[in-house]
Amino acid sequence: MQGSVNRSGDNYRWWVLVTVVFGAFASILDSTIVNTALPRIQHDFGAGLHLASYVVTGYILAAGVIVPASGFLANRFGMKRVYVSSLALFTAGSALCGLAPNINLLIAARILQGAGGAALFPLSFALLFSVFSSEERGKANGIFGIPVLAAPALGPTLGGYLTQYVDWRWVFYVNLPVGILGVILGLRFLRETPVRPELRFDFPGFLLAASGLGLLLYGISNLAYDGWDSTRTVSGPILVSLLLLVGFVVVAWRGAAPLLRLRLYQRRNYALGAGVSLVGSIAIFAPGFFMPQYLQGLRGQTPFEAGLLLLWGGVGAVIGSITTGQLYNRLGPKLLIAIGLTDNLIVTGVIAIWMTATSNLSLLPPLFLISGIGLPMMFQSVNTLALDGIRGPELPDATTLSVVTRNVMGSLAIAVLTNFLQSRATLHMQAIAGGVGRAFAHRGVGGVSGNQMPPLVRAALAAAYHDTYIVLTLVFLPAFMIAWFLRQPSWRTKTAAASPAATGEAAPEVALAMAAE
What we know:
Strand content: under 5%
CATH architecture of the largest domain: Up-down Bundle
Largest sheet: none
Radius of gyration: 23 Å
Number of helices: 19
Distance between the termini: 42 Å
Order of helices and strands: HHHHHHHHHHHHHHHHHHH
Oligomer: single chain
């Protein structure tokens, strides 16, 4: 038909590429855009850092729990149907976040949003690979990677601008035109994929994992406030969660078609790579959560000013992603992992030493840039090395397990470190600022602007952030030991003619390995 889009052959695969970019871009952008707005959200709702942290951790944890179900749903009902439904749910969740009248409903809407957004990136990648041949995937990846890599770089600055000059609710409303257009394109252009109605979902594993992780996050989040003696909010939920998670491990290990194939950890590189990757998750999620709090809550930066500072980390990540794709085959993954770990160990340590109530903020852009370059070197390289030799049906299981563990670790790390920050702030305030400090400590870190704090209270809070970054620095040390025992990928032992360096296929794929973060 004249003027219509050809849904077969050459045109179809490019329309798939255009369509899936919307879902991937929206889900990745949302993982970074909210952090800069969080201090203003706290202020407007009168919430402390403890409660407000659920706005971030609830989203991350919901995404981590739902990701393993996305593979089953895509096979059971078809990729098009699940992709469009996920994007619609994500868009609806974004609208509810913007309309939320209080912090509790905002957290609930964020969980809904995270559940919808969980499948968007993996399904976008699967749809893309299903229509492009091996020879064309490098070109497709390059185009797909431009908005995907731009999303985390733009997130903090865009979030800061909208929060300061428009309204923090537009941090969520900005997803609506992207999501609606993506749904329309998906319904119009994506083809239905074959379904497998015989598949059965691992409901016991899903219920054990979801309830166990939810209770664990809840208990850890309350630890600094209620203490271990509180069986209702701390010790009880944590103990029950551990029992549920042990039950999940048993079910997953013995099941024929488990929710997560934990037996993959029997592979040496996969297990060791997971250990290094978990450190990388903490290095990404925790500073992304705490630095906006420090800049706005303690240093009195506006949301946009904080976003401009944080932009340098995203710029570095784009540079690092492209550089890693070029160097991976030449230097090998182990050297790149060591460079990335060393980079972030030094930068995090320097920030910990630098962090006071009056430190010169002009030092942050180069530090964020350097750290951003190093993170992809560590993350992309270890992810690609961990998946070396895994093919066929095991590959989607391996990538799913990897994404889930990173999301869960990122969520729990924020909860643990938020408790640590709050407890250290309380101790420093009592020691430095006496009764005034105890009053501020009771209100919770992040509840008051830095300009409204007495100088001694600001000094106490700065000391608490310093302690938190010292812990973040120490987290990198065991990763060096784990990385030492990683084996080189199989292609490094082959001849140059047969290696990925000769074929040129590995570099384009590794350049996108971090995009799901």
